[in-house]
Queue: 4 jobs
Job 1
Amino acid sequence: MTPNSENALYIGGEWQQGAGTITNINPSNIHESLGDFAQASNAQVKQAIACAREAQPIWEKTPLEQKQKVLQNIGDELIARCDELGRLLSREEGKPFAEGRGEVYRAGQFFHYYAAEVLRQMGETAESVRPGVQVEITREAVGVVAIISPWNFPTATASWKIAPALAFGNSVIWKPANLTPASAVALAEIIHRSGLPSGAFNLVLGSGSEVGDSLIHSTEVDAVSFTGSVDVGRKIAAATAPNFVRCQLEMGSKNALVIADDADLQVAVEATIAGSFSGTGQKCTASSRLIVMDGIHDAYVDALTQRIAQLKVGHALDEGVFMGPVVDEKQLVSNLRWVDRARELGGELVAGGGQVSLEHDGYYMAPTLFINTQNSWDVNQEELFAPMACVQRVYSLEEAIANANDTRFGLTAGIVTTSLRSSVLFKQQAKTGCVMVNLPTAGTDYHVPFGGRKESSFGPREQGQYARDFYTIVKTAYQRPY
């Protein structure tokens, strides 16, 4: 059966219709629908879990070169079709085509990386403290992995979870965000053609309150990998703990970019533009706190304000667009409330601040900048997921680092400086999982670990070889040969 939006569930190697449908709206043009997409029932979730459990030992025992080829095939097709699938992603999520295309290409790179990782899985040996005893340390698959991924990177985030899960011999049940079902079905269709055993990969579309809850409370799921909000992350941790199901949680953030007195002004401005406003600010790594030292503050604000005025907001597929719409009406309403809140607290609006009316009816918001804000304000403490940044003035590097760390989150932090001493101190003292120097806070590589501290992350790191710590279980074997 060829998949379409109404039979978009993929369970046990077959496409299925759901118990209902949701309409997928293009945020660049709210009068355009990408289709009505199936929603899974609880019975279908249970069926997917059963299929995954049956297929997992088959997939784990599949010869290495065959596994490697499966993941290589997926990566090859994603990269070959990155224009087509990037356009689809941009239509349903709202990011400009260049970003959508780049995301699909990066997803292909994840599968290529873990295809190679299949062949790099090696055990260890150790000397025993007992004479004549041999010790071997090996890794085995965890089992059935539930993956719950967000809408802001619908293909890339899912891929950096699915690829290592499969590479290490697990079976997968994937619940993507309901706001981006078309990209999920496109990826599932590619995986369907890759040569996996039936049931080793399953796609169940649906709401978190129904499909997500069924997965996280199941005693037949061995691990849950989640990216989303802190509130949902806490719920997953509470649900999985009684069943001793391992969980990996990537949650909120409130990333700071420090602009030191000695910063190169152009580097500082461009790092801010890319970190604060690309992806319409809807990145977990976005820099919504701009901590600026007094000596450069006025020149930086003037240059940044001028640069923001040059940014083109528009339809995700239009030429030259830097920033597309936010993802949906709920997000736009939330963003505008945060603008009102910043004004109420005493922030000075120097750019943007409102909805943008264009030829197409969409959820457009102007890139927004406030100055004269305080780190203690809730607009500088809560994750906004908006194209909005707030500047706070500080008077020393020590104050800047203290403010950067003064948050319950700890995903990324950055500094723009020409001082080696300042960069070293910042790298040492920033209480985050990722630190950027003279770079945007948004933007990471696929072959090295990714994750945060405090309320940003829980569990082993994602990406690179570090992913094996979540997707495998270590076994230590002792033997006395005859």
Job 2
Amino acid sequence: MSERTSPAIVVIGSGFAGLGMAIRLRQQGFHDFVVLEKSEALGGTWHDNTYPGCACDVPSHMYSYSFELNPGWSRMFAPQPEIRAYMEATADKYRVRDHIRFGASVDSMEWDDAGGRWNVTLADGDVLRPKAIVTGVGALHIPSFPDLPGMERFQGASFHSAEWDHDVDLTGRRVAVVGTGASAIQFVPQVAKKASKVVLFQRTAPWIQPKPDRPIPAPVRTLFDKVPGAARAFRAGIYWALEARAVSFAVSPSLAGPMKKLAMSHLNKQVADPELRAKLTPDYTIGCKRVLLSNDYYPALTRDNVELDTSGVAEVREHSIVTRDGVEHEVDVIVYGTGFKVTDALTEMRVTGRDGVKIQEVWAEGIEAHHGTTVERMPNFFMLLGPNTGLGHNSVVFMIEVQIAHVLSCLRLLQERGMDTIEPRPGAVRSFNDRMHRRLRRAVWNEGGCQSWYLDEHGVNRTLWPGFTFEFWASSRKAKEDEYLLGR
């Protein structure tokens, strides 16, 4: 594709990040862009994840764009089809669907020093030559499978929860579930209603709090729709309630007492059997791993057809799973609810920047970015949901919108200064990340040697923002010119 016909900006992904970027680009007068989506439909993780019970664990009025409030959410925590419908309707309303190129998987991105453009090579061999790239692929799109001996020998159906096989009827089947993360606590109660038996293999018990989910009555939805400011005021109330949850994260783990008390009370009320309750009691500081919300997970584990196994998986055989204590569980189906390759989603990117440097070389000491958005020696390259922009307490859509504002401010700097390229100064990147990681080392995620998917192989948190989201908004919504290198 020639430079004359190639779009000036390439946005990668059409989840909340990519879709929000596309909308804001149009609103700011940038119309020469394309959104590359590897799937055949928009939605990102909300298109990919269709497992039974799939829903958001952040209240829907907060897990949505601030510029496109939805007064019609049916529940406090909307299910996956409703979130997908919201994203589809938003894309249509803001007329960005025509900018999306579906079935366009990006193979590599390489900066052309001489031409001052990126070469974006697609899986089908097509090459785009944009001036700038905004990647919004996020971290929750590469399923992570456990390394269990004999997995390939299993003769029954097996799949990851993020790639749910709806052709497999679980009615009356013996189902093994490996993993007890955010997805598993949603689909296990649904599977338990159909399967003749469910064996849940738990490595680490999660902290679970009650989910304040309920239908939103029609009169309340009408109020949000007809009364100016009502929906926004409700959203603001949710925002500050969620921010309060970060006190033990952002200030001190010693302040986590109320959160732990709520979770333990929830467990004690829903599980009467002391032996089962002991297996479900976490042995680490609350907040160290993601705090989950559920009202039906614990009750599902008390059903007669559900067994919780904590002895650890030793191997998988043709028709069974054998645990480390020698017990063999015969099963027909295995569902892996084992999360995603979070840091790998970034480190495996095929990106080559200025002077031929690969992004893996820039990240030799660990993945990092300036305000989670820009990377040194990568001109006109922007990341949404980049390193240390994830959250354990509030809506990541809020973080996305802050990053989008940062990207737009960088593009405006180029326009106002008549420049062609922008990249962060190495010193600015170092200063920002040093401050952030000093704070992270004192935070709950490193408490007591806690291990989680938040940490990389060196035990460094490359995933989460260490403080309140309003701190990220205050520091990161606008690019500071003295922290960037502008060039022609």
Job 3
Amino acid sequence: MSYLPKRGLYPLQHNNEEKGWSEPKIILSSFLAILLPSALLLTLPVFSVTGLSFMDALFTATSAISVTGLGVVDTGTHFTTSGKIVLMFLMQIGGLGQMTLSAVLLYIFGLRLSLRQQALAKEALGQEKKVNLRKLIKGIICFALIAELIGMIVLSFRWVPEFGIAEGLFYAAFHSVSAFNNAGFSLFSDSLMGYVGDPLVIFTLSLLFIGGGLGFTVIVDLVKNGSKGFKRLQLHTKIMLIATPTLLLVGTLFFYILEYQNPNTLGALSSGDKWLAAFFQSASARTAGFNSVDLTQFTQPALLIMIILMLIGAGSTSTGGGLKVSTITVAAVATWTFLRQKKNVVMFKRTIGWPIVTKSLAIIVVSGSLLAIAMFSLMLTEKAGFDKVMFEVISAFATVGLTAGLTAELSEPGKFIMVIVMIIGRIGPLTLAYMLARPEVSRVKYPEENVLTG
């Protein structure tokens, strides 16, 4: 069976490349158009207490827009209230996506999107061409703001009594925005370690970043077809609804078992708090970036589980990153299909086309190559062990934001490497690969010949 694409991975790609602007270039350019001015803005004295160098500002802005959450300075103490508001705005842009925000701005000023812009926005949101883009974006914005508002209200019950009305509401709003957009920025120096046994804070934030991590495509499908039963849902939605709780449960059990007797993590907690902490780290590892225990004290097996969860990541078209749950699922099912000597990849009585399978495998291969290059580069610039370098690079690539302690000690070249990794992680490795490879559509089919593998 041969697959001869007519238009490439992105819609209208051939026509755009004739004009010198392919979709990958547009995506990268729109990201940089927001990033660079934001970095310059954060260097202004009004936004930080002691000032911020351009490299630190670039790192922070990249981390916020890519909704990663890694920080080279303490967010809570280093930034002024104005600086924290800027970070909230950048996290919101990063979570909703540049194409969504661009469409919103054009609609606000009464301008129409071109066909190319509409195609890009619909693909970024995982929707078909016939979808009413204006109505879709309005629904997404409303859902995000309502979810963040509910999160802020619930969190205010904890932090208003603790910090007062004004500061408590701001803490609640900041963490609600950060959680829903899977950004991982916290105003507390120890992230959420001070609330490790607080069900209200832990469950509220968990629901926010799990909801954001499902993806807007899933939310839209649930709203449209959820009442019609599970069978009427899209295949992608079914994958996410089954894989998300499965990964959450498996991660919770692993963290609980592996860290149960570790006195520096779960060992010192009560039985109930142990489960709460294990649950939160399992949920947070898949791109949220918060931690309620000291990750630098995790055992090596637990760190490995966390690395695997970070790599898997959240759902496509979500506020989270990683390789994506559906990508890993398709690759795993395709492998099982090959081992069983079956011809077609089938899930829930639906056949997955080989182009989708090939794309999933390409994402994994390209991502693995980029991660290897980034790790090697960082080991040349930093005096750190391989385990810390691997953890930090994967955290940046998957836009998770969890740290094993290396980020705060990065050299200037190391910070720049991590900035590049975060950008690639957010825009997608295939976007970069397509931009560098300059793909050409070909309808020529050559004779087949076997190659010895395995």
Job 4
Amino acid sequence: MAHHLPDGATELRVLRRDDWDQWHGNLMRAFGGAEESAEVVALWRDELVDVDRALGVWDGDRCVGSAGAYAFRLTVPGGASVPVAGVTLVGVAATHRRRGVLTSMMRRQLDDVRSWGEPLAVLTASEPAIYGRFGYAQATFGISAEIDTGRVTLSVPDGTDAVRLRYERPADVLDVCEAVYARTVPARAGMLARQPGWERVGLLDPERDRDGASPLQCVVAERDGEPAGYARFRVAVRWTDAGHDGQVVLQDLAALDPATEAALWRFLFGIDLTTSLKVRGRPVDEAWQFQVSDIRRCRLRLRDSLYVRLVEVGAALAARTYQAPVDVVFEVEDAFCPWNAGRWRLTGDAKGASCVRTTDAADLALSVRELGAVYLGGVSLAALAAAGRVRELRQGSLAEASSAFGGLVAPWLPHGF
């Protein structure tokens, strides 16, 4: 059904298959005009983007706005897999900025997500300042590093030497790697179950994106003859007057146990003709950081990753578990999705939870953004209170709720979308 924007000059509607070229062209311009390879375009157009969940804004016969929403399943604290809308491919033509195009798409999209029965929307932000006004908040972070493997060593746990590694062509062991990845998904909040077609994204390897490095390589780790992990990476061998100065660039790594994980990292540290290892967006509590001999020579950088928006407060808070018993009433502010505004009583523990409307006195006052920030356990309510973003109305309720929302491991988004 078409939806007209207030000024009548543009039209907002669900994408049609024959709209793709214009819709995708607007998106590419919005992100600087870079061209994607035919392989990448075909994968997104034919397999990944659901046109029935994509929106376009049109000025006459020209597309001037785009927004999509993948149908994902996200691990939440407690290990449950919850349906979420993965907001993506958002762009507005520079000729149509400051005219309400983005706001109209976000309004329509969140209404759609609610109608689809998905209690959460998530995204990765090219410009974080954009999405706060629509109720999104940073909920996970990632560590990037450039490790001086010529000087830094690893102290590995018992059992590491029993792990066997073998080189394989990435495409030949795709099913093996995906089976390992699928087993890791329930163990960490923020991880995405791989939907059909997404397994191929990890194999995309256009030469122009290698920055002088090798084609994608892969090693598979085995314990007791069974696959237990893998790493996909590139190697850039460089030479100076003093000799080799190559770099390993890690694309992704997954393992089922600490010894296998350590074996893969030790392998990456020791590849011939290299003196550094570059990694991006890894979990903030990943074990290698506590195994290295010199953390300063790892040049760590922290960056925001997944942004979370509670579309249905009650359903979202009831979908996860809590590491300590909690019984707290939230006074929630949500101007963009007013159906969430008001008082909600959350009761729960490690076995389950419920979250329902209440007229009881509020214990904590906050906006939907703060609930999104703490939802996966990577940000604490206490920290947000110290920043002036959460108000404690009943003494002791902040400590109770903050402890309950935490997690044993940091949430992590394994790949972008």
